[in-house]
Amino acid sequence: MSKRYFAALDVGGTKAEAVLFSQAGEIVARVVDPAGTPFENGVARTQQNCKHTLDKLLAVADGPVESLYAAIASVQYYPDEFEGFFKENFNIPSMRIEGDGYCLISGVLGHRDGAGLICGTGSALYIRQGELQTHLGGGGHLIDSCGSGFTLGRYAIQAALRAHDGSGEQTRLTELLDKQAGTEMWCNLVEIYAKGRAYVASFAPTVFQARREGDLVARGIFNTCAADLANVVWSARKRLGCAFTLVLNGGIFTHFPEYAEAVRALSPADVTFVYSHVPPIYGGAVEALWQVGLIPDDGFCERFMRDYEKGECVGH
Question: H helices of the chain, where?
Fold first, then answer.
């Protein structure tokens, strides 16, 4: 019997990841590319980036791919453009494209009701309850990406610049940012604007380091951002009118668990926080199976993660 192939794609603010896998959970191929959202890159460029990534992935398959699940940040604002593009460019019988937060739920809970809070370069809270699928936040970094890596980085840069011009308190953040940038931050504005959101977000870790060292400015940024994310959780609780399980994922939560714990402590007590142990692309794989009527067996996750942790990728 020939191998059955399925594919999943996850596109976030800085990275695109795609996997080709079997029904048993074996990863046949994996591709990791730079990425960005349609808000930043525009629809056409994001579409071409998706095609570039998937063309490399699908070229490995020696048979037809039955199902593709694509989770793309901000795609909910461009449904017709992306659905049409995928149908024109990929000959896959079952395809589904949606925002990049629902697969967070599926990675831990399977295709069940729940919510997922992602905090990486950007942030948003996604809800799935029966036929309802919606999100809170996720309006992009210019409008609303509260508590995200971008927001943390922006606050850190702002604090350093204000300390420099005397309108703000002196802070350990200044030294940490200057060291990371390789120059004084107040001289770095050209590079900040040229490199954009991902570059700003790259400075988020300085907030956590300075806070651990006792810096009061960093502590204030940490507390403000954690409270903003908790407010989104409160909003979700009010909207649903009942307790729910919330899956946390994203680079900021993964690398700084103290931040996730601060959000949990400020959130409704009857919301159950679950810290994801799998990458978002695993949830995409679960969804790719679900949409053709398949449910992963007990060994699927073990095999998938075993192969995933090898870190092997198709050439860029």
Answer: 38-41, 43-58, 79-89, 102-109, 149-165, 173-181, 189-195, 197-201, 204-212, 216-240, 251-255, 257-266, 280-290, 300-308
Distance from C-alpha of 293 to C-alpha of 248, rounded to nearest angstrom: 26
Residue whose pair of structure tokens reads 């309006």 in the numeric block: 139
Mean pLDDT of 251-270: 96
62 and 5 in contact (C-beta within 8 Å)? no
Closest by alpha carbon to 18, among 55, 44, 64? 55
Q: Please say whether the beta carbons of 30 and 312 come within 8 A.
A: yes
CA proximity to 252, closest of 268, 228, 217: 228
Alpha-carbon span 266 to 182, nearest angstrom: 36
Counting Cβ atoms within 10 Å, is residue 110 exposed (0-12), middle (13-18) or buried (19+)?
A: middle
For residue range 12-65, list pLDDT tens digits in order.
878 899 999 999 999 999 999 998 889 888 999 999 999 999 999 999 999 999
The partner residues of 137 in beta bridges, in order of sequence, read: 124
User: Can you tell me the distance from the alpha carbon of 222 to that of 207, in angstroms, rounded to the nearest whole number?
Assistant: 7
Q: Which residues pair with 5 in a beta bridge?
A: 22, 65
Q: Which 3 state secondary structure label does DSSP give 99?
A: coil
Structure token pair of residue 144? 């609303």
pTM, 2 dp: 0.84
- Mean residue pLDDT of the chain comes to 93
Which of 184, 151, 196, 157 has the alpha carbon at shortest distance from 14?
196
Q: pLDDT of 238-259, one tens digit each?
A: 999 999 999 998 889 999 999 9
